[in-house]
């Protein structure tokens, strides 16, 4: 009964989409359990490139049932645009199932996301502006709107009105914006009802039944450990729990159903938006990583901040998520450096830290202590076995494995579906 979770080990964009797609043909259900369309998961199939924001990446494998769990926040415009675009491109996709308990993102969440960021000024989080934070805030405040509310018009209208009452005061009096008409929101949501009806299900039961029948269920994490609202670099985080345990909450399965947790880590580090990042590079090496790795956000197009591999960041994710395996992506992007720095400790006010400090103030002031590993010049994008990799590349992987305390079972050597090395079977 394999329940497998895929989790980002850094600050997102590690290549979770590619890893998910890769396992695709052996998977029966692919479940998104947290986040919304703040995610951007890229998949290359032949010469076709797909970017999934809301739909699970497994959708591109016919035979996989895609599921949006209760922990996801759903912008219905985005959902149907994504499905329509896939259909237009002739992709053969299965019918997605949507949890009746999932919350919706509406226009006022998007508006609030943008105005709060503007008001924060220099202290802004650098959100994706998709309304994700305000939708989760409503959920926790118990004024959110769930998918199932759309099927009871009078309840829906009452809930939208209640949810907007306070927000309209805020929008008008504090943010100097126009008030939003509750009926406009409710009418828009109701326009999706007929299309939505066949998709809605008790997805927790569906997934648990599938596990009972020995089906393979892949829980596809979005964002990453260090963007987790509890475990990340708060407040520079997203508003949900992308960590592996979030799969239990966000899909409605018990911890006993998870057999494997695969951490996805880039062979270097990137981050989008604000927040501390000790190994960030501001020199030509940073520009070179951005150029070689095409490090521009899949959702907002923003240039990603780039830096060297930070073993402390990935090690702490490995611990808190219980990684059984790591998939190391974008190793091909490190070709061509004479020496590759890897952060093995921090120095904070003259004190050495061998693990991530629990104090955010210390983390903000952390200076990386680097170990310089030998680089390689050979093109590794065609390698398909570990033995084919140059000796220095193998040594880089082995050293990372030691530092993060978890075996590296997969290695990405290019964006293509086939451009991977499987060291240990992932299923
Ligand atoms: P996700 O959000 O974790 O799914 O990652 P993104 O799709 O936002 O960003 C990862 C980027 O790296 C995408 O453009 C992928 O196509 C690309 N990618 C993934 N794995 C590899 C790899 O091993 N090598 C290279 N060169 N690119 C990769
Ligand atoms: P994937 O799944 C990288 C970041 C934003 C911002 C912070 C909060 O593609 O790895 P939000 O819109 O969630 O309130 O923004 O989180 N962020 C991501 N960064 N990859 C992502 O998703 C992200 N999703 C959110 O840039 O700093
Ligand atoms: Mg991404």
Automatic annotation (TrEMBL):
<comment type="pathway">
    <text>Purine metabolism; AMP biosynthesis via de novo pathway; AMP from IMP: step 1/2.</text>
</comment>
<feature type="binding site" description="in other chain">
    <location>
        <position position="223"/>
    </location>
    <ligand>
        <name>IMP</name>
    </ligand>
</feature>
<keyword id="KW-0342">GTP-binding</keyword>
<dbReference type="GO" id="GO:0005737">
    <property type="term" value="C:cytoplasm"/>
</dbReference>
<dbReference type="GO" id="GO:0004019">
    <property type="term" value="F:adenylosuccinate synthase activity"/>
</dbReference>
<comment type="similarity">
    <text>Belongs to the adenylosuccinate synthetase family.</text>
</comment>
<feature type="binding site">
    <location>
        <begin position="298"/>
        <end position="304"/>
    </location>
    <ligand>
        <name>substrate</name>
    </ligand>
</feature>
<feature type="binding site">
    <location>
        <begin position="40"/>
        <end position="42"/>
    </location>
    <ligand>
        <name>GTP</name>
    </ligand>
</feature>
<keyword id="KW-0963">Cytoplasm</keyword>
<feature type="binding site">
    <location>
        <begin position="12"/>
        <end position="18"/>
    </location>
    <ligand>
        <name>GTP</name>
    </ligand>
</feature>
<dbReference type="InterPro" id="IPR042109">
    <property type="entry name" value="Adenylosuccinate_synth_dom1"/>
</dbReference>
<dbReference type="InterPro" id="IPR042111">
    <property type="entry name" value="Adenylosuccinate_synth_dom3"/>
</dbReference>
<feature type="binding site" description="in other chain">
    <location>
        <position position="302"/>
    </location>
    <ligand>
        <name>IMP</name>
    </ligand>
</feature>
<feature type="binding site">
    <location>
        <position position="142"/>
    </location>
    <ligand>
        <name>IMP</name>
    </ligand>
</feature>
<feature type="binding site" description="in other chain">
    <location>
        <begin position="13"/>
        <end position="16"/>
    </location>
    <ligand>
        <name>IMP</name>
    </ligand>
</feature>
<feature type="binding site">
    <location>
        <begin position="412"/>
        <end position="414"/>
    </location>
    <ligand>
        <name>GTP</name>
    </ligand>
</feature>
<comment type="subunit">
    <text>Homodimer.</text>
</comment>
<dbReference type="GO" id="GO:0044208">
    <property type="term" value="P:'de novo' AMP biosynthetic process"/>
</dbReference>
<dbReference type="Pfam" id="PF00709">
    <property type="entry name" value="Adenylsucc_synt"/>
</dbReference>
<feature type="binding site">
    <location>
        <position position="13"/>
    </location>
    <ligand>
        <name>Mg(2+)</name>
    </ligand>
</feature>
<feature type="binding site" description="in other chain">
    <location>
        <position position="128"/>
    </location>
    <ligand>
        <name>IMP</name>
    </ligand>
</feature>
<dbReference type="InterPro" id="IPR027417">
    <property type="entry name" value="P-loop_NTPase"/>
</dbReference>
<feature type="active site" description="Proton donor">
    <location>
        <position position="41"/>
    </location>
</feature>
<dbReference type="GO" id="GO:0046040">
    <property type="term" value="P:IMP metabolic process"/>
</dbReference>
<dbReference type="GO" id="GO:0000287">
    <property type="term" value="F:magnesium ion binding"/>
</dbReference>
<feature type="binding site">
    <location>
        <position position="40"/>
    </location>
    <ligand>
        <name>Mg(2+)</name>
    </ligand>
</feature>
<dbReference type="InterPro" id="IPR018220">
    <property type="entry name" value="Adenylosuccin_syn_GTP-bd"/>
</dbReference>
<feature type="binding site" description="in other chain">
    <location>
        <position position="238"/>
    </location>
    <ligand>
        <name>IMP</name>
    </ligand>
</feature>
<dbReference type="InterPro" id="IPR001114">
    <property type="entry name" value="Adenylosuccinate_synthetase"/>
</dbReference>
<keyword id="KW-0460">Magnesium</keyword>
<protein>
    <recommendedName>
        <fullName>Adenylosuccinate synthetase</fullName>
        <ecNumber>6.3.4.4</ecNumber>
    </recommendedName>
</protein>
<keyword id="KW-0658">Purine biosynthesis</keyword>
<keyword id="KW-0479">Metal-binding</keyword>
<dbReference type="InterPro" id="IPR042110">
    <property type="entry name" value="Adenylosuccinate_synth_dom2"/>
</dbReference>
<dbReference type="GO" id="GO:0005525">
    <property type="term" value="F:GTP binding"/>
</dbReference>
<keyword id="KW-0436">Ligase</keyword>
<feature type="active site" description="Proton acceptor">
    <location>
        <position position="13"/>
    </location>
</feature>
<feature type="binding site">
    <location>
        <begin position="330"/>
        <end position="332"/>
    </location>
    <ligand>
        <name>GTP</name>
    </ligand>
</feature>
<feature type="binding site">
    <location>
        <position position="304"/>
    </location>
    <ligand>
        <name>GTP</name>
    </ligand>
</feature>
<comment type="function">
    <text>Plays an important role in the de novo pathway of purine nucleotide biosynthesis. Catalyzes the first committed step in the biosynthesis of AMP from IMP.</text>
</comment>
<keyword id="KW-0547">Nucleotide-binding</keyword>
<feature type="binding site" description="in other chain">
    <location>
        <begin position="38"/>
        <end position="41"/>
    </location>
    <ligand>
        <name>IMP</name>
    </ligand>
</feature>
């Amino acid at each position: 009964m394999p329940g497998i979770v895929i989790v980002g080990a850094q600050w997102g964009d590690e290549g979770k989409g590619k890893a998910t797609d890769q396992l695709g043909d052996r998977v029966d259900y692919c479940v998104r359990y947290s986040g919304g369309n703040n995610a951007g998961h890229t998949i290359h199939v032949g010469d076709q490139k797909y970017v999934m924001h809301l739909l699970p990446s497994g959708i591109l494998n016919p035979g996989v049932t895609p599921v949006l769990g209760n922990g996801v926040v759903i912008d219905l415009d985005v959902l149907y645009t994504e499905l329509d675009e896939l259909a237009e491109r002739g992709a053969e996709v299965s019918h997605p199932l949507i949890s009746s308990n999932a919350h919706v993102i509406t226009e006022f969440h998007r508006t609030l996301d943008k105005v709060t960021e503007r008001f924060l000024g220099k202290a802004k989080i650098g959100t994706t502006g998709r309304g994700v934070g305000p939708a989760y805030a409503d959920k926790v405040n118990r004024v959110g709107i769930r998918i199932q509310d759309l099927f009871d018009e009078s309840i829906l209208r009452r809930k939208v009105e209640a949810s907007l009452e306070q927000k309209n005061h805020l929008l008008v009096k504090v943010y100097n914006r126009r008030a939003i008409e509750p009926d406009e929101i409710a009418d828009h949501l109701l326009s999706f009802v007929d299309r939505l009806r066949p998709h809605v299900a008790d997805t927790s039961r569906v997934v648990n039944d599938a596990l009972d029948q020995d089906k393979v269920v892949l829980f596809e994490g979005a964002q990453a450990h260090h963007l987790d609202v509890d475990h990340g670099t708060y407040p520079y985080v997203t508003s949900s729990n992308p960590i592996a345990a979030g799969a239990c909450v966000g899909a409605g399965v018990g911890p006993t159903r998870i057999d494997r947790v695969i951490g996805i880590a880039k062979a270097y580090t990137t981050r989008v938006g604000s927040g501390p990042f000790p190994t960030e590079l501001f020199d030509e090496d940073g520009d070179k990583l951005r150029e070689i790795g095409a490090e521009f956000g899949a959702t907002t197009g923003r240039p990603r901040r780039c830096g060297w591999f930070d073993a402390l960041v990935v090690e702490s994710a490995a611990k808190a998520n219980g990684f059984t395996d790591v998939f190391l992506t974008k190793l091909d992007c490190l070709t061509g450096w004479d020496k590759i720095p890897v952060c093995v400790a921090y120095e904070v006010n003259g004190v050495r830290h061998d693990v991530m400090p629990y104090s955010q103030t210390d983390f903000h002031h952390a200076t990386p202590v680097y170990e310089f590993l030998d680089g390689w010049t050979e093109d590794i994008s065609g390698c398909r076995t570990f033995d084919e990799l140059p000796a220095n590349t193998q040594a880089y992987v082995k050293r990372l494995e030691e530092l993060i305390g978890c075996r590296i079972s997969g290695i990405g050597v290019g964006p293509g579906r086939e451009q991977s090395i499987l060291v240990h079977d992932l299923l």
